[in-house]
Amino acid sequence: MVTYVSAETAPLRNTGSIRLYGPEGFAGMHRAGRLVAECLDALVDIVRPGLATQAIDDFVRDFANDHGALPATLNYRGYTKYTCTSINHVVCHGIPNEKPLREGDIVNIDVTLIVDGWHGDASRMYGVGPVKRAAERLVDVTYESLLRGIGAVRPGNTTGDIGAAIQTYVEGERCSVVQDFCGHGLGQLFHDAPNILHYGRPGTGVELRPGMIFTIEPMVNLGRPHVKVLSDGWTAVTRDRSLSAQFEHSVGVTDTGCEIFTLSPKGLDKPPIIAA
Ligand code: MF3
Ligand code: CO
Ligand code: CO
């Protein structure tokens, strides 16, 4: 049985109940989400061949410090970086390191910043110089799948409607949806109820109600959906080493549909392929 609680009176931990936020919560999420979007916007001018993903992490560290934000991933379950940087066949949770990006890579950069206690969580794909057509198509399909998922967010729909919208579209494009990771409730917590699966059947799961806040963050593979986690305990890769892509927005359910907290002020939600 699913229960819904007012975020104002609920304890600040994941109890499994679904928290419903009011106008202050939405205002806080807009501030946090916008800052994440601005950080991801700024990275469009930073990402290039030869750059180490550690330099991306350093940039996000400085950006967070300069804007009075805290990085949610630092020290999260032992994670020691400000971002996740997931290249090519890395599905998610790639750990920034000193290896340089190469022309033709596609890289997901995932940033979660805490502003006045509110968590903004978003990620985008960046093309490093010209990329192969197959890679570009995967990025396009993944972004479109996120939009389709967001399009299913309205009161009375269910989490299963979101997953079904994503899965139906992705599989129709002969790609596959990763099932081992999901979107999540967030707000004053980083990972909260409910789980947002990126696959499923219409009408199943949890009913969406105004005031709910969560992420949608589909991971889409060119090949099979199966993943494995490397011995570092974080890096998830496709088992068949096929390319993988991901986009993420933080959204809130309104009376009529949804608001996206992490929209790019510059319209760079899907960045252009960066010239080498
Ligand atoms: N930002 C990721 C998400 O979308 C979570 C990263 S947790 C980390 O939920 F520890 F790997 F950074
Ligand atoms: Co997330
Ligand atoms: Co994220």
UniProtKB/TrEMBL annotation:
Query: What family does this chain come from, according to its entry?
Result: Belongs to the peptidase M24A family. Methionine aminopeptidase type 1 subfamily.
The UniProt subunit note reads as follows: Monomer.
Q: Which GO terms describe its biological process?
A: proteolysis
The residues that hold substrate are: H93, H191
Identify the residues that bind a divalent metal cation 2.
D121, H184, E217, E248
Q: How is the cofactor bound?
A: Binds 2 divalent metal cations per subunit. Has a high-affinity and a low affinity metal-binding site. The true nature of the physiological cofactor is under debate. The enzyme is active with cobalt, zinc, manganese or divalent iron ions. Most likely, methionine aminopeptidases function as mononuclear Fe(2+)-metalloproteases under physiological conditions, and the catalytically relevant metal-binding site has been assigned to the histidine-containing high-affinity site.
Q: Organism source for this protein?
A: Methylobrevis pamukkalensis
Q: Where is the Peptidase M24 domain?
A: 28-255
List the cofactors.
Co(2+); Zn(2+); Mn(2+); Fe(2+)
Q: Which UniProt keywords apply?
A: Aminopeptidase, Hydrolase, Metal-binding, Protease
Recorded hits in InterPro entries, A to Z, give: Creatinase/aminopeptidase-like (IPR036005), Pept_M24 (IPR000994), Pept_M24_MAP (IPR001714), Pept_M24A_MAP1 (IPR002467)
Task: Give the enzyme class.
Answer: hydrolase
What this protein is reported to do is described as: Removes the N-terminal methionine from nascent proteins. The N-terminal methionine is often cleaved when the second residue in the primary sequence is small and uncharged (Met-Ala-, Cys, Gly, Pro, Ser, Thr, or Val). Requires deformylation of the N(alpha)-formylated initiator methionine before it can be hydrolyzed.
A Gene Ontology molecular-function term? Answer: metalloaminopeptidase activity
Name the PROSITE patterns for this protein. MAP_1
Per its UniProt record, what Pfam families does this chain match? Peptidase_M24
Q: Does the keyword Metal-binding apply?
A: yes
Q: What is this protein called?
A: Methionine aminopeptidase
**Gene3D superfamilies for the chain:** Creatinase/methionine aminopeptidase superfamily
**Which EC number(s) does UniProt give?**
3.4.11.18
Q: What PANTHER family does the record point to?
A: METHIONINE AMINOPEPTIDASE (PTHR43330)
Record GO cellular component, one term: cytosol
- Detail which positions bind a divalent metal cation 1: D110, D121, E248
Reactions that this protein is recorded to catalyse: Release of N-terminal amino acids, preferentially methionine, from peptides and arylamides
